[in-house]
Amino acid sequence: MAEPEAKRVKTEYELIYWPGIPGRGEVVRLLFEEAGVGYIDTAKADKAAPTVLSYMAAKNLGDDKNPAVFAPPVLKHGDLVINQLPNILLYVAPKLGLAPASGDAVYHLNAIALTILDGFLVEVHETHHPIATDKYYEDQKDEAKLRAKAFREERLPKYLTYAQRLLDGEKSGEGGWLYGGELTYVDLVLFQCLDGTQFAFPRTVEKLRKGGKFDGVFKLYDAVKERPNIKAYLESDRRIEYADGIWRHYPELEEDEE
Amino acid sequence: MAEPEAKRVKTEYELIYWPGIPGRGEVVRLLFEEAGVGYIDTAKADKAAPTVLSYMAAKNLGDDKNPAVFAPPVLKHGDLVINQLPNILLYVAPKLGLAPASGDAVYHLNAIALTILDGFLVEVHETHHPIATDKYYEDQKDEAKLRAKAFREERLPKYLTYAQRLLDGEKSGEGGWLYGGELTYVDLVLFQCLDGTQFAFPRTVEKLRKGGKFDGVFKLYDAVKERPNIKAYLESDRRIEYADGIWRHYPELEEDEE
After folding, report:
1. For all residues of chain A together, what is the average pLDDT?
2. Is residue A157 scored above 90 in pLDDT?
3. pLDDT score, position B127
4. Which of A37, A57, B19, B138 is the most exposed place for a label (fewest CB within 10 A)?
């Protein structure tokens, strides 16, 4: 039984993202899935790629209510059209009960989200594309090896140390969440970003897990994975498998076996 | 005549940033300067670097009201301590009259700020550090040449095209500003980021200016530069000269003279 079109348009979230990869869109999906809120996912509809490209087109100058967007993910909600992943999270999280709508927590959580995305998403993409986003990995493989080494040895531990610092500083709850003693969207951000990083660098992440310095971080990862809605989602065919997106697995970028 | 300490602490903004480079802190400074609002700038005080490092220290777990921060810039305002440049801008801009405090514009402006910072700040830093942030430029010079070429030829025009698209889509004013027909903080972000990019790649930016495809962008740049408070600031000794920060000039990373 379909809802009346006018109502549906006003109330439903629409995620516009590339098909075939989890990518940045996956972080947005996890918020909807945890909250149990329905959403339209153009990545799984007809003309998925053309839909994305229509938003990015030079001649697309936005509309009366919205400026042009630069790149996906794009979120449509009623008349509003916004892009930039951390910005979409900032907008939807309070509406989904995954963040307070006002006060200092808004800025604390936004800072944490931005930092996790810098470390476990943007910098992971750089490991396989250190020279040019627009060129093939194969054309920058030598440089990728160097960048990946620096990521595995310096950057990844640095960001994990920060996440663990947040957990060590959390006095407000026993839940093991990053902020305020209860689950918020930044826990979902960390889960997805660490999951992707683990896909890309399984040996490195396994070693860091066993090292014992980041127990709180991996406990949080495991706890998110077991949340009923997330668990059901991960087991469903809505969850897209990793492929040639942000989080890629190239064995030659991994550390050597011991 | 000094204000009573208690009042001063509650009302004054304190920017914590590295000394000796404009860097990310400079974007925050421009907002205060345009608004004519006083602020404490630890970059210009004694122990500037140790102050930054004390926030980043592994043992610094934040305080009762704030989680740990990852990296500067850090903003203190009363009891609040936050980091991440786009997050600081999001927080201060409405308080300084440089953005609406609520509504769709918050998310439109945040997306624009994030995109400009990605293109003209983060990606410029990558041009001289494509392999490892923690290593010297001299140790990644060959890769830097490749990355800088891709930036000059692909990425910079792409982001300029987006900024021009925003201006072309702006129907609400003749002011030539990016959003809503009047100056907002994203215009200041674009000014600073383009100014830094011009310092790093003067020949490339001059050529793009003369090319005529981005007239609106350069008009905006010139207009910000002439605003009375900004002009006075740029001529003052509070403006820090470019050095070995995000926006660096290495002649070998520039395009060849024609």
Report:
1. 94
2. yes
3. 97
4. B138
Cis peptide bond prior to A73, omega within 30° of 0? yes
The per-residue pLDDT for B5 is: 44
Q: Which residue of A has its CA nearest to B102?
A: A102
**Contact A134/B at CB under 8 A:** yes
Q: Which of A70, A111, A168 sits opposite B115 (nearest CB)?
A: A70
How far is it, in rounded angstroms, from Cα B117 to Cα B31?
A: 15
**Cβ–Cβ under 8 Å, residues A87 and B111:** yes
Decide: residue B95, CB within 10 A, 0-12 exposed, 13-18 middle, 19+ buried.
Answer: middle
* Contact between A61 and A122 (Cβ < 8 Å): no
Kindly determine whether residue A67 and residue B108, on different chains, have CB atoms separated by under 8 Å.
yes
Measure the CA–CA gap between B112 and A69, rounded to whole angstroms. 8
- List CB contacts of B247: < 8 A, sequence separation 6 or more: B22, B124, B196, B197, B199, B200
B76 to chain A, minimum CA–CA distance in Å?
Answer: 12
CA distances, A82 to each of B83, B164, B180, B215 (Å): 23, 18, 15, 26
Q: What does the pLDDT average to over B224-236?
A: 98
Considering only CA atoms, which of A14, A186, A83, A110 is closest in space to residue B109?
A83
Task: Count A/B contacts: CB-CB distance under 8 Å.
Answer: 141
pLDDT for A5 beyond 60: no
> Is the Cα torsion angle A106, A109, A112, A115 positive or negative in sign?
negative
Give the CA angle between residues B40, B85, A118 to the nearest 5°: 145
Instruction: Determine whether the interchain pair B83/A131 forms a contact, defined as Cβ–Cβ distance below 8 Å.
Output: no
How far are the Cα atoms of A165, A167, B15 from residue A177, in angstroms, in the given order? 12, 7, 29
- Give the tokens for residue A193: 């970003």
What is the sign of the dihedral through the CA atoms of B181, B185, B191 and B197? negative
Whether A128 contacts chain B with CB within 8 A: no
In this complex, do B154 and A134 lie within 8 Å of one another by their Cβ atoms? yes
> Does residue A170 belong to the interface with chain B, where contact is any CB pair within 8 Å?
yes
Q: What is the pLDDT of residues B107-117, one digit of tens each?
A: 999 999 999 99
CB contact under 8 A, B169 and A83: no
Å from A40 to nearest chain B CA? Answer: 20
| Interface ipTM | 0.95
3-state helix, strand, coil in chain B (%, to 5): 60, 5, 35
Binary contact (B134, A115; C-beta < 8 A): no
pLDDT interval class at A174 (50, 70, 90): low
Q: Which of B58, B84, B154 sits opposite A111 (nearest CB)?
A: B84
Stretch 74-93 of chain B: residues touching chain A, C-beta under 8 Å: 80, 82-84, 86-87, 90-91
> What pLDDT is recorded for position B79?
94
pLDDT above 90: percentage of residues in chain B: 91
